[in-house]
Design brief:
220 residues, alpha/beta, Rossmann fold, five-stranded parallel β-sheet, globular, binds thymidine-5'-phosphate
Length: 220
């Protein structure tokens, strides 16, 4: 079952991808596209999305300090933030019929903590079942591009790197592979977009996917 049942008439749309693939710009595009068609849209992100979950995000991204963050602690913190976010924001929005657009969600955990950090999939699946129950995204837009090109884009911003951005190249290759493997295993839910194309082309593709899904959901 997905989020689209009688008790939760809304839909959950997630955007995923590695660092530097252009998620922020494209999230804004998705939100505007849906709002222009008269839908209530809740735009949110993970980790974070509520004040307390945003505090947990700070802990996760903070590059400061000499004490490394243990990989299991990182995973549990990701799910602690998600539990708060789902209970306080995502479920109430889906229950009142809103379209929730979330910048990263459960697939990021399989890609970053699973393939990136090497935590067994079964552990992540157990936490997923506990925290999400039967809630899964209805549509996931995966922005995909070569990790080297994406890396250049992150570095060219000139901002201080967070704990994840500051990883080695191998980590980003693993994350990309993790995402693509998930996309191939669930082709109905995922749309994989070539994020290296000019922005106009990427957004044209996103609009086509949204058009098709909204029709399928009876929400045009
Ligand atoms: P972003 O908001 O700039 O994408 O940063 C969030 C970071 O958190 C990003 O580097 C990926 C990481 N992350 C995980 O490692 N696991 C997760 O489950 C989520 C949602 C994010």
């Amino acid at each position: 079952m997905t989020s689209a049942d009688k008790t939760r008439p809304g839909r959950l749309i997630t955007l995923e991808g590695g660092e530097g693939v252009g998620k922020s710009t494209n999230i804004a595009f998705v939100v505007e596209w849906l709002q222009q068609r008269g839908h209530e849209v809740v735009s949110t992100r993970e980790p974070g999305g509520t004040p307390r979950a945003e505090q947990m995000r700070e802990l996760l991204l903070d590059p400061q300090g000499s004490e490394p963050l243990d990989a299991d602690a990182e995973l549990l913190l990701v799910f602690a933030a998600r539990a708060q976010h789902v209970a306080q924001k995502i479920m109430p929005a889906l229950q009142r019929g809103a379209l929730v657009v979330c910048d990263r969600f459960i697939d990021a955990t399989y890609a970053y903590q699973g393939v990136g950090r090497g935590i067994e999939t079964s552990r992540i699946a157990a936490l997923e079942q506990w925290v999400l129950g039967d809630l899964r995204p209805d549509l996931t837009l995966l922005l995909d591009m070569s990790e080297q090109v994406a890396r250049q884009r992150v570095l060219s911003r000139g901002a201080v790197l967070d704990r994840f951005e500051d990883q080695e190249g191998d980590f980003f290759r693993a994350v990309r592979e993790g995402y693509l493997t998930r996309a191939h295993s669930e082709p109905q839910r995922f749309a994989v977009l070539d994020a290296a194309l000019p922005l106009e082309d990427v957004q044209q593709h996103i609009a086509e996917v949204l058009e098709q899904r909204m029709q399928q959901w009876g929400l045009e």
